[in-house]
Fold these 2 entries.
Entry 1:
Amino acid sequence: MDYARMKFYCDESRCIECDGCSVACAEAHELPVGISRRKVVTINEGIPGREMSTSIACMHCTDAPCEQVCPVDCFYIREDGIVLHDKDKCIGCGYCLYACPFGAPQFPRDGAFGAKGAMDKCTMCAGGPLETNSEKERHLYGQNRIAEGKVPVCAAMCSTKALLVGDAESVSNVFRARVMARGGKGSNSPYGWDKAYKNK
Amino acid sequence: MTNSLGDIQKSKAIIIFGANPAVNHPVGFQHFLKAKERNNSQLIVIDPRFTKSAAKADIYAQIRPGTDIPFMYGMLHLIFKNGWEDKEFITNRVYGMDKIREEALKWTPEVVADVTGVPAEKLIQITTIYAKNRPGTLIWAMGLTQHTIGTSNTRLAPILQLSLGNMGVAGGGCNILRGHDNVQGATDMGCLSDSLPGYYGLAAGSWKYFAKQWGVEYDYLVSQFKDASWMEKNGFTLARWWAGVAGVKNDEKIENAGTTLKALIVMGNGITSVAQQAKIKEGLDNLEMIVLADPFVNEAAILTDKKDNVFILPAATQFETSGLVVATNRSAQWRYKVVEPLYESKPDQDIMFELAKRLGFYEQYTTGMLMRETKDGKLEMIPEKKTFQWPEDATNEIARIIKTIGLTGWTAERVKKHTDNWHMFDEVTGAGMGPMKGEFYGLPWPCWTKKHGGSPNLYDISIPVSQGGMGFRNNFGLEREGVNLLAEKGSQPVGSKIDGGYPEITKENIEKVLGITLSEEEKAAMGANWKVDNSNLIVEKCIEAGVCPYGNAKARAIVWNFPDHIPLHREPLHSPRTDLAQKYPAYPDKPNHFRVLTKYISVQSAADYAKDFPINMVTGRLVNMNGAGVENRASKYLTALTPEMFCSIHPDLALRHGIRNGDMMWVHSPEGTKIKVKAKHSLTVLPDMVFMPFHFAGYFQGADRTGNFPAGTKPYANGESVNTVTNYGYDIITQIPETKGGLCRIEKA
Amino acid sequence: MRKYIYALIALLGLATVAFAATDSQIWGEMRIQNILGYGQEESLKLGPLFTMLQHKYFAWIFLAVLIGVPGAFFLHYKIIGPKVFPHSEKKYYAFNLYNRIVHQVAAVSFLVIIPTGFIIVFGDFFGGGTLVRMAKNLHGLFTIPFTIVVIPMALMWLKEALFNMDDIKWFMILGGYLSKEKKPILAGKFNAGQKMWYWVAILGGITMILSGAMMYFLDFKMEMLHNLTGMSQIDLLRAAAIIHNVMGFAVVALFITHVYMSMFAIKGAVHSIITGYVEEEEVKILHSTWYKKLKDQGKF
């Protein structure tokens, strides 16, 4: 109970669909164009009072469904809650995509006859199973900023600090302070609380 | 910007009028959001389309393009009617409000609703909230400026603030959002054809001052012009230079001393970001020489058919050079070089120095950087200094010369210190802490002396001049038609020796106004007035006495040297409401307007445009691109977000023309030009308007011109430039194009 | 004491301010009505369903099939033993070249598809990586020959595969395989067991092809499917995954059965699909109805 659990939170009262997060991620990890580890989604565009934008990537779930369904067991969940996977083990079957509620797994069309290559997803800038900060790790998984004590690049670049990342408790504190300052207006309930913890 | 971005967090009500900070200043938009969060501020957005900023607004009003003056008069009408105006402020510090009051009587909510399309209840709601939640700040950008009446728009907005007493207070002010970083700096340095740097104008006196400061003879400068009279005339503008090129078809008389433009040098500017692309192309085609200095291939090279004498010079980017930049809130920062110029690219200054060397005026060009003031108010060459240190010496030269806006305190050393210690300044007020105490971040001008800490909020009389306080400038005389133009008693900066208003300080009146006696040495060293005083004694004496060197006058609501003394509504040249165009007609045509004839009424009354071109056309920016998009469309990730030129169109309008989402469509302009773009169904626009971004180039009226790119320089995305179809229309004073108010006709491609 | 109670009330009050009042745009009542969340009411809940099935059950059920079905047949072989028929009698040409080629292609395909399918299911046992990836690629590759022959095979044996009254009686005695006797069994050219295998192989096979293709191509856009089912792309993929696995149980179980029957339970039966000739004694006992018909036609 003393361990930090790393989580993302996107405050949709502040998200303005500037796409700074998705571009920063693509640049920092030199992703091929078309693989969007992080996407910004806008719904109800043009409807006053209902337009809303939010930034979505892998949410690093505590009970990660992707990890549960993988036939080759290539996922591993770090002690701090970050969910990562081994691209060398991955066979590109797609099960993790079916299980994920957020559509985080992405597949490049790498192989012959359009076969799916190994899955790629947000790593919360924590690299992969290869040697930390090695060239190989950077090539396959992108930067390992967590190992250097740096903030994941999407939240670091967020124009309005809508996207928060860090220990779940710290993130909650930041968000709670905002909600209180707003006097309860705007978004005020964390993701899925009423769904995840609803008493049936 | 009279206040600052951080200061917005102190506002209780914010009106964003013709600006879109969520898209164009995404990081700065944090301050708006924090104002909402921390200060319970009401965010009001008034815009023809439901922008990303509008999505975060508490109240949103959809307004017909070009009808901002009726809306603001509608607000003033209600303010005066309900007695919400700040009577004391108006009496003491404003001249001519009565005329505004008179005009405002005509603009009842019902009339406003008819003209602007904003329902009466919404106007009342917005005005009530804005008037009852002070201080309120008014934000604007191109939405107000890019009209034929842009100058009137940007006068009525401050008048609105003056009526509510929102000027010169923290959380108030007119916070105009400048578009690119350092465009404020470019303005301050006079990169326009109607002034020397620092807003000194073009009078002979100013030329003589600069001649002295640059270490050259006045007559030498005169010899570079046809004669002295031409030195003092405005030049061409970016909007209409093409009219001065021989061979360009236009029926407009050019006042260019009987000659034509032969060559154009473009340094880092998007030629396609200005209206009337077809005419610009003609201008380019007919020039004798075009030089384009840019890190990426300027789209002008692609647009023109000219095959010879088109030169592309590789200019370095901002990362490969260093120097002073000025932010939208008038503050200075130092930009450091992080990498040496790549390949053969040269920083802009080196390009200009090389040009100056070959044209034979390099010495005259650079002498100013080898000079300094003497103790007795004169200028001298710095002994033993043979070469200048760029950019520090240039920065110090600017600080030495530009006194009109008080850049005296902007030495390279001070500015660097601020940038290096930006963590020592408060986010909201900019006030320094620890070693930086007493200074405001970036020393916002006016920064009167090398010890002054900058002036974060303009016109604030609640603080002494030494800490950034001041009244309104005395620039238009002491009285007019019997009415005192100076501030009334009781309205002066705190700590002022003088009670009430006073004129701008000159050598002649300083002893009388300040009630001091100068010594003989001081008299000898002192310059004629505070703007040309190398000794800076005038400024120092003023600050000692708590007096602002530029005077303490009333802000004037009447500008008697403008065509419209008070702002008046005039319909855009291409108005969808022909009946209103007759009721509120455009200006008379203006000859010799920056050397060209600018047509107004003759264009507006030439046809019933609304019949054949019934759709409003609004252009604007995208968050992932800027300017002509030359740089951004060469970045794969930015391009991937908006890979094609598009037109945002309401599904109702689109489907009436059989245009499905993703279909190609033609947009025709009254100029006779047309572009082929992809339709994007969107609810952010009304069914009587379309929106297009202006960041694309490479296609012209359906034709693909990207074959003109040198090998390997073609950007990832190319498309039509919307400025091929933006309509004719230019502001009466500044000649900025009317790209925010035009008409078009659409059809399925 | 009072102080603490006041503090508690204040704290609760503040907490409700933070979490009460207006709902979030996406997660509360205000949200978009037609995007159904992952596990919400009214959604098909295929996401959680797939996750649970794949996590807990699929691999185990496949293991049960892999061990149980051959295990059961092993016991059968030991206890009851194979049916042996002499090979000296007259033969009838039952399967022509076309039949046999089509069947062989399908057989070879199955012989690659099924083991590779198992390698994928038990991927972690094999350590993932290149081996399992290769298996996945072969699994998909050999779908192609099967796809080519499945319709021809369906058509060429359709008549013989239709169920009739004989099959009910056949099922009641389980084809006579539970006794060592050689009594004539009611069956046409194909007995009920073979017919069952036919339908599972054809219909099940086509289902496996389609669901497999959906998972392989991921971003197939079939308007028809969307309009028919009203399901979103991701839900269609999840359904495909579930169907592929469940159908897989049946196909694998019956495939093993078919192999046992044709290669072990009836000695020498496999030759009939290699040479095309069936034995008179075998037909007389195991396909008595067909034998009578052939006799009447003078084939025997």
Entry 2:
Amino acid sequence: MTEQNFPVRPKVPLSRRRFLQTTGATAGVVGVASQTNLMTFDKVHAQPAAASASTQAATVVTKSFCHQCPARCGIDVYTTHGRVHAIYGTLDNPLSNGKLCPKGHYGQYLLYDADRLKGPMKRTNPKKGRHEDPKFVPITWDEALDIVAGRLNALRDKGESHRFATLTGRGWGYTDVGLLTEFGKLYGTPNYNLGHSSMCSDASELVKHFMDGHHAYSAYDYAHCNYLLVFGAGFLESFRPYNANMQNWGKMRTKAAKTKVTVVDVHLNTTASAADRALLIKPGTDGAMALAMAHVILTEGLWDRDFVGDFDDPSLKFVPGQLVDVARFKEKWTLGLAEWWNVELKDRTPAWAAGITTVSAKDIAAVAREFATTKPAVALFERGASAHTNGVYNGMAIHALNGLTGNMFAKGGLRGYQTKTAWAPLPIKVDDYLDDYAKSPDRKKPRLDGAKTKKWPLAKNMMQEIGINMLAGEPYKMDTLMFYMTGPVFSGPDSTKWEQALQDVYVIDTSPYPGETNRFADLVLPDNTYLERLQIADTYPYEGYPISMIRVPAVKPLYDTKTFGDTVIEIGKRIKGPMGEYYKKIGNTENIIRWMCEGFRDKPGDNGVNDFESFKAKGVWYRKPYIYLQQRGVFYEWDGQGYNTVLKPEEVKAKVMPTPSGRFELKVGELEHHADYVQQRLGIPPEKAPFPQWVAPRHGGDGDLHFISPKLAGQAEGRGANLPHVSALIQPTQGGKRNVFLEIHPEAAGARGIRDGDRVRIKNKVGQIEVQARVTHTTRPDTVVLPMIHGHWAQGRWAEAQGRMPTGSTNEVTENLSEPLSGLVCYHSGMVSVERI
Amino acid sequence: MAKWGMVIDLEKCTGCQACTVACGMENSRLPGEHWQDVIFFQEGEFPNTELKWFPRPCMHCENPSCVAVCPTKATYKNESGQVLIDWERCIGCKYCMIACPYGVRFYTEEKPSYGGPNIKDVFPSDDAHSWNPPWKAPQEDWKHGVGVQPHDVVSKCTFCHHRISTAPAGTVDLDPSDPALREHTPACVVTCAPGARFFGDLSNPNSEVNKQIANKNGVRLLDHLGNKPQVYYLTGVGGSVPAERAIKPKV
Amino acid sequence: MEHRTEPKTFGEVFTLFATLWRENGPLGFARLAITLGKTPTAASRWWLGSVMLAALSLLFVLYQLVFVGHSSFNTSSDGVNWGLAISTYVYFALISSGLTMIAALGTVFGFKQFLPIAKRCIFLAIITLVAGFTVLALELGHPFRMLWAVPTGLQTMSPMFWMGVFYTIDLVLLIIKFYLMWQEDWDSPLSHAVGIAGFLAVILASGMLGLVFGSMVMRPMWYGPFTSIYFMLSAALCGAAAIVVTTYMAYGFDRNAMPERLRVLASGHELPMVFATLIGITLVMFVTRFWVGLWSNLDGLDGFRALVKTPLFHIELWLGLVLPFFMMLMPKLQKRMKPQMVAAFLVLGAMFINRYEFIVGGQLVPMFKGVWTHSLEAYVPSATEFALVGVGFGLALALYAFGEKLFHLSDAPPDTETAEPQRLATA
């Protein structure tokens, strides 16, 4: 099937010109005159450097922002004679600063991917399957959009508009997935933007929400940080914003007070290797180490008294195993410390943690002391620590360390949270276009993914549930699904279930590439790649001050493709009733962007951007600084000159730490409300639910080895599989240049008769895949590691290349098991068995 | 004339390969044709395993063994110190590849190291170029080994000759954060996020590169072979220079 | 035995072909070409086979080179750069040099008992060099460019430059020498001068070929002046083995078909002694090289440890060198034809392996590839590279058969000890 879809241009290997070249007939006489000095080889070639001046005149540089990870680094795109050939970080962009990570330079490869779809298509083969050729026929956009509108109008007429869902991945900005909220309101479906975040990193956001009131990723001040403690995050491989992390790494490691770094992870990656201390921990047990660290910090009196508070009598102490009198501890900006000690921490000694984590008690205590006594410090975590059934509680224990040591909202610490950009509102109000159907209470149906229902009350999204829900017809039978920037049929846990789920539903895919979803699609509405788009977005949380960026198309679309935002608008225009009117008034995404940019007139960026045209010219709008600061237990706000305005507690609650108490909650108020749910899902007694605590992880799958699938530095998160430039350097620590290898410890390998380079089978109750083994000392004896990029059975001729390993997605052996509070898929939690083939 | 050299601070290098990808992009390289590469080594045993890595451009040696062996003088050292290849003189004998102790040279005609079809067949050229990708960069200078090369020749890092050769005369250091010099700075130096790479005139005692070498004990790789590379490494904690040129094979 | 006149000038050669064409017509000429003449000779036995081998191999190689290019080889920038093609070239080039050295035994150093093989040696030296250069040309990216780029480059620092220079001089001298021999000029001052010059040329050429590898300080498995000596002396061995095999081939493995002096040489004591001596010298060099390589801790010598574990190594050493060595020392075996043949074949095979293992083995330890190359380089020649070997052998054997048919390769200067001038016939 692949061959017929991927025509290869006929070669003319031995053209006349090449033949002549071979025989030397066309080779000119090379500067013989310069070859006079026989015995030296310090040659001077008399030729001047090739005059690139003529081509430079034809080179146009446009601004855009990268798509290969959420960081959204500002980029300069170089186009000469209509060919995009280079991308570099924008120099005067505060996030990229002229730098890029490896993925930033893939843009032109993605633009000119040989397997890109050329235009809208509809399926003619009624059978759907992994190996079924959809037999797409090209159609016009009008025809395609009419098909969609036809289905959507039909559903609405029957009162079943909830049976249409849009599943989204990496969508950014109001003119992109931002449009879907209004679309959902107008159309009448709760499933307007079923996001992928539960397959991404929701646990850390929920932890922050619980403890400091911000349901978001944190902004860090790495450049001034003196101690960095990383739990399960690839700080130098993939943690965002990756490019900025590396820029800050360069500063951290060479500034006058060199930042000390401790990394806790389950295998030795570059982050752990570059650190001053690497602790290889048993998967899913990071929380135990963090709890023990908190224990040490308290027993040795190392907590930050300015921020946390203290006993009213300095002779009172935290003694291991002993209760304290809660009333005697006067807390300032934290809530529940003494209770937490009594309920959980008093027995969580380093020796206890060592037994669970396999990290020595000595190391745990040493890290605790270093972390608490080196200021400022940051403790951060991400999926490595939280993609487990105990992930949120692990995260809470880790995040608590920032509170205990007074590094919240501090310079050089966990700096804060992202401030919003002052976009102007649209002149058109969506509420004016809601008809009775849209306003009807009948439209308040439960979401297809089950998020925010009794089953998953705290989850933002639950995309991984959609497949199995659809197979069960829950909560209702779906009619049409539209996918944007997400492909759970490859990337979702227990991914093969999706292949069944997509059989009986009308699938619309918007990917410009022939990925796995495309194989099951009934209709394809290919998107423009990011270099062909006009689009705006807000930054990934970086240092807290607002940043927004714009994509200016570097070239006209190569093919008959349409920016997703415009596709949504065009569909909207064709929906009967006032909804159609709304979208006709909107017109297109460019109109929206122009309207929104009006907000810059009153709040120009630090670089002078104050309207649409200057925004396009510069590529970025930002206003420094981040306006809040905590220093020695006092919260300040920027007054235009300095951090001079002292904030009162109610202002802190309103502006900085919007938790129920207005403080950093070690006793999480929201969890008190959900204590029954916590008890039901995790077996924790209700009175203990609000506290960071040790919960033993339940590992999915079965088998005797922990299975981890990390992201690597060169991996463009699913979009690199069809780029041979990416495969060529995909797993550099293990020499993976065509395949990715399974890292397996020599003991584990030896016990199974596996030698380096052997083909092995990874299997558990979910499924099995085959891969090549790399016997290495970089992983724990009980853990095997397989990066998640290869294993595609679609995406293009290179992604699908025969003989490339592994034979399937890592998700074919990942159980669909979710952390109960955040709903985060426990990607890093599964067990497998490995055998030689 | 400047004697261009490079300094790489291994204390900052994170081994991300942005330099490798940027070089490939700037110079229209084939996948796997890593003129610049980051080489990893593993040493030690769990739990005390070490991952070592270092970026490896062409060293543009002072005494290049590759230049000495080329039977047609296709490879040569120009007056600003780069070792370059004239693709109109190269006969593809690959002696220079044998003679380079750092393994930085590439021959055009070989089986792809990535899986799947040969990308040269997917984007073939109708003329003497070995292939013609849609993202091909505009610069081309076969006498200096710049651009997409013809078939059957050897290619390697040129220190972005097409960029540095247009730098204003008398420039001492090519700093990519200087807007006036950015377009003249090698791609790998431009993109390095931790700022681990420096490029400047080794013959100028006031250059930043010379200061870095002196202050942070810059070393050269395989110095005992006498090629005298013009790329210096500031050894540090993050990556470091391995003791040997290959990982210890299990023989 | 049939008496046949050897054409003596180029004119006569041309006339011979023209006559055959006229007499037999194109079709008949073609048939004659296939059978190598009207009457069957020993040469015609391997003529057709070698022509087929050369032609089919060459067609395959050219097809691959035109439609796939040199990526049809398994050499790679990350791995082994010089593979089977280069080792085959070195093999043939050194056989050629060795044959010249053997010829020099008679023509330069005055060992008259070796004169009956001198002309054959020179002829074979020419065609094996041509075969080697052909293989090399098919391996190079732009072979014809060499013709102008090498002279204009004048890169005198390059061992390969000098290798090319000396082998070119060598080829020219060989051709002149053969021409003189063909004209039965054995003793003139010119003949002597050319002989000496030719001998010097092959010493320089094979030595320089050795220095191509031996100058490489970054390749410790090759580095050192020893490689030069090694190549020179093992070339002599190859030459000796080659002439034994090819002489027997020319006479249908029947000593009685040989001319008198030749038979005496073949049946005598000197041939096996020279042969055994050369094998012995080669064995000593082989063992000392491997001893040093295995013993030393120097980074980069790990390839020796790997080579010792390969079956090819042991086939080469025990079967290809040690066994023939003892065979040629044993009085019962050394003078008999079959043992000599077997020993010579084994040696030729061993030396083919030797060149391969020397060249490829020296590249097994990768140059700063780290974990991109996990352990040693892996290299297995591709079908095209094997076909190149077929081109080399096919071409050499075919040209040999042709030359055997056309020329009297066993001609020797008159034996001054016996009064009779020898007018030698070829079978």
